[in-house]
Write a structure and sequence with these properties.
Length: about 230
């Protein structure tokens, strides 16, 4: 387990809060977070918007909303997901959902788990997680997604795509820049990668469909894809 003085930032993919949220799955994640916190580690959890955000963003876009407004809708939904998780973390968590970096820093001294969603239009919640990990001097940054790692191409469309055990930020930024970025489509955007690069925080991209992978990543076991600054 991570020593008591350390913090860990975890980006929790929106897949955990599906269109029909599964209380059992969310409770499984809460159990993992409680176990980590019981060892004295302070967690900063960043929840994504996922399918719920995309559905509302697509509807808003069809109604004529601009991309910044669509981004803001996604942010609000990610904060609703944060509130759902807070409701299940009981005494280990701060009840407030911070909406700025300053608020995150102000909550740190309580020593409790902090749960938040997005912050700024144009930034993915992964980028938010990377920035928060930097500000809080986290020991690890874990990205829990709905895929089991970073691939050489999109495994959903390219059968020749290969999963990488590790990747450098220089190569990853090239991949990120080649992607399509609009509200609701972010995963590893350039802002996230550059924040990881400059902070030099050890980062692991894992299969967040299995809550136990979070423990494995913290324990240094081989899981997902390691991102090397």
């Amino acid at each position: 387990m991570v020593p008591k003085t350390e913090r860990v930032t975890i980006k929790i993919g929106g897949h955990v809060f599906a269109a029909n949220p599964d209380p059992k799955l969310i409770s499984e994640f809460s159990g993992i977070f409680k176990k980590i916190a019981s060892g004295g580690t302070q967690l900063i959890l960043v929840t994504g918007g996922g399918e719920n955000a995309r559905n509302y963003i697509n509807a808003a876009r069809a109604l004529g909303a601009d991309e910044a407004t669509c981004d803001q809708i996604g942010i609000e939904i990610s904060r609703i997901h944060a509130q759902m998780l807070i409701s299940n973390l009981e005494e280990i968590v701060c009840s407030d959902v911070p909406t700025t970096i300053r608020e995150v820093k102000n909550l740190l001294h309580y020593g409790k788990t902090i749960v938040m969603g997005g912050l700024t239009p144009g930034h993915s919640t992964t980028a938010v997680g990377a920035l928060v990990a930097e500000v809080t001097k986290s020991k690890f940054f874990i990205i829990a997604s709905n895929v089991d790692g970073i691939y050489t191409a999109d495994p959903k469309t390219d059968p020749s795509a290969k999963k990488l055990d590790e990747i450098g930020t220089k190569e990853l930024i090239t991949m990120a820049l080649s992607g399509k970025y609009s509200a609701g489509t972010y995963e590893l955007d350039p802002v996230a990668v550059k924040a990881i690069e400059r902070s030099k925080i050890p980062t692991v991209f894992i299969d967040g469909r299995k809550p136990e992978n979070i423990l494995k990543a913290i324990q240094g076991r081989k899981v997902g894809t390691r991102i090397i600054p």
